[in-house]
Design a protein that fits this description.
Blueprint (H helix, E strand, L loop, with lengths): L15 H8 L7 E2 L12 H4 L9 H7 L4 E10 L27 E7 L11 E3 L10 E2 L9 E2 L1 H10 L13 E4 L3 E3 L9 E9 L9 E4 L3 H5 L9 E4 L1 H7 L16
Keywords: Dioxygenase, Oxidoreductase
Protein name: Kanamycin B dioxygenase
GO molecular function, one term: dioxygenase activity
Length: about 260
């Protein structure tokens, strides 16, 4: 679920470092996904081990099978408004902006680091929409409108079951199917709303993405005891801190699988 800035889904060549230098003054209009440098002193033990163990989260086993694969680890922040620029919402979209299986293949885990409310931009969720296919969307992967849901379908779905914007306590675990319709919402408070975002794919799903983590994190992942596959390119601590802002956002992440 790496949410991109509102209305900018499709800027696949822009990195977070470039974006933050050129677009951050207009932050009130955006939901952004700044990456975190994963190094040992950030105390990510619970995030990388406890919350990723399939046996502690039976939903992952029941929906996508044993030994899922973690290939996405990021954050998602809804920024407070500026006087000159009121907050805006994202279009309703699906992160599965490609021809995808009709059965579960990927689950998103969100962990709010502050309590999320409608006031500070908790994610809008359209429950029951995970069964829709790519024909419900406007734009192909890489386009500006990639994954955006067609307006007539939104109206039809709202007549059956409208969206929800829940209050979620700090430290809770929120699971959703990657295909689910959702939208980043405006933050009307003075504080940043931030949550962690992880995606686990079924073991049979051939997603080629890999994490880039500092070597000092390796012992934490070894504690996962083989029940979770984590493809990692290990790099030095110095390189992790130097390059983490060079990661992309939005459509620079490809959740499709290799043919």
């Amino acid at each position: 679920m790496a949410s991109s800035p509102s209305g900018t889904r499709g800027h696949s060549t822009t990195t977070w470092a470039t974006y933050s230098r050129t677009r951050l003054p207009w932050r009130s209009t955006f939901t952004i996904n700044p990456p975190s440098p994963v190094v040992i002193e950030l105390d990510v033990h619970d995030t990388l081990t406890d919350t990723t163990r399939p046996h502690r989260n039976p939903n992952h086993v029941l929906r996508s099978g044993p030994r899922p694969k973690l290939t996405f680890l990021s954050a998602n922040s809804s920024m407070p408004p500026l006087p000159s620029s009121p907050p805006q919402r994202q279009p309703v979209h699906s992160d599965a902006d490609f021809a995808h299986p009709a059965h579960p293949f990927a689950l998103v885990t969100n962990i709010p680091l502050v309590t999320m409310t409608p006031a500070n931009g908790s994610t809008e969720l359209w429950l029951g929409t995970h069964t829709a296919d790519v024909s419900a969307q406007e734009g192909a992967h890489g386009d500006r409108a990639s994954g955006r849901i067609r307006e007539p379908l939104l109206a039809a779905r709202a007549a059956v079951r409208g969206p929800s914007q829940p209050t979620v306590r700090k430290g809770s675990i929120v699971l959703r199917d990657l295909r689910l319709w959702h939208a980043g919402m405006p933050n009307s408070t003075a504080d940043v709303r931030v949550m962690l975002a992880m995606i686990r794919f079924a073991s049979w799903y051939r997603n080629p993405m890999r994490l880039r983590l500092a070597e000092d994190v390796r012992p934490l992942l070894e504690a996962v005891d083989g029940r979770l596959e984590v493809p990692v390119d290990w790099i030095s601590r110095e390189e992790a801190l130097r390059t983490y802002l060079g990661r992309g956002f939005g459509n620079s992440y490809d959740f499709d699988q290799e043919q």
